Amino acid sequence: MEANQSQLRERLDRLQASLGEVTAAAVELAEVRTGLLRDRRGLEEIDLAAQQRADEVQQLLARFALLKEQYESDLARLQMVGEAGTLLGYFQTGTCIFCGAEPQHQHPEHYAAESTQLAASVSAETRKTTDLLSDLLLMIEDLKEQAADIESARTARHEELTHNAAELRALDQRMQPVNTDATELLNTRSRVESELALHAQIEQLEDLKESLSTVAPALPTARPDGIPATDIADFERVIHETLEAWHVPGNNRARYDPTTAELSVDGQPRKSRGRGMRSILHAAFAVSLARRNTACGLIHPGFIVLDTPVLTYRRPEDPHEDRPELMTADVAENFYRDLLENPPGQVIVIENPTPPASIRGHATVHAFSVDGSVRQGFFPPRDGQ
After folding, report:
1. Collapsing DSSP states into helix, strand and coil, what is residue 363?
2. What is the pLDDT of residues 288-338, one digit of tens each?
3. What is the greatest pairwise CA distance in the chain?
4. What's the CA angle centered on 227, arms 15 and 209, to 5 degrees?
5. How many Å separate Cα 119 from the centre of its chain?
6. 299 vs 74: CA distance, rounded Å
7. pLDDT in tens, 135-159
8. pTM of this prediction?
9. CA neighbor of 235 nearest in space, from 294, 322, 306
């Protein structure tokens, strides 16, 4: 160990500052990437709807093409009937080709009436079919325009998706060195903290050596923060064990800064975390302090009070939420189980949800309510009031 404690602490402060800057940069890039992914999902959903509409248009065009052929075939047959009227002798004298009546039984202008009715029927049916064909051609033209517009819009969206993918690749390349720097800084900080812990152990051994000598031991020099590094390291270890017992996600590497009274876990200060994580870390701090003081024979009142430590600790409903906390569903149950199996003393938990069924038979549970409850609050009512 070539560096002394002062140099190591200065280096640790610089590392912490650099780590904060790298973390801020990583968070900023992650927010940008989340926005790009959100845009990509939106474009893909729009493109899927456009593809479905394009398929519908193509199906309609195929059906209308068959209907157009039918109309054209009907017009051809009507034209053939009109032209065949004269060729087949519809206007000659003799037995009526329409009703079969003999000449002596036919009234005047019989042939004219029959032929006129046939011509009128053919003409009316031709106009009707022609109108239907005209309307159908307009609809086919409109559908073709729709298909062209859809294809043009899809081409533009594909260009946007290609641009979005390029931005994502460029952003991932920018994030790679940031993540590498963060990993290197964390590893370096761990080495510096280990060296500081070794210095603290050496000091402790030297103090023990002086206490065993016949010479009256000199009073140790007071530290600026008043707390030995070994005590801080041991306290951080207890916090880590508590968080692990509660199954809180992450590595749970705890660091306590006595100068600011700030607790950081996995490089993130408690004050920068979400509401649920802040509650969990506050509870872990109180429980770990009680356990360590009790184990070391230090002063502690023997009980702790926790107000809604796991109420807000839950999995976010939106998986695409910006900067989500990593949550698990079993933290609350492991929290109660750990307090039951390894109690730090008397623990008073004030929570809105009912505790897990696995611990109700081992804990005293009071339900507070305003109406119809024997006990309406934490403190029981005084007699006569």
Report:
1. coil
2. 999 999 888 888 888 999 988 887 655 545 454 444 455 565 888 888 889
3. 161
4. 105
5. 73
6. 105
7. 989 999 999 999 999 988 888 889 9
8. 0.40
9. 294
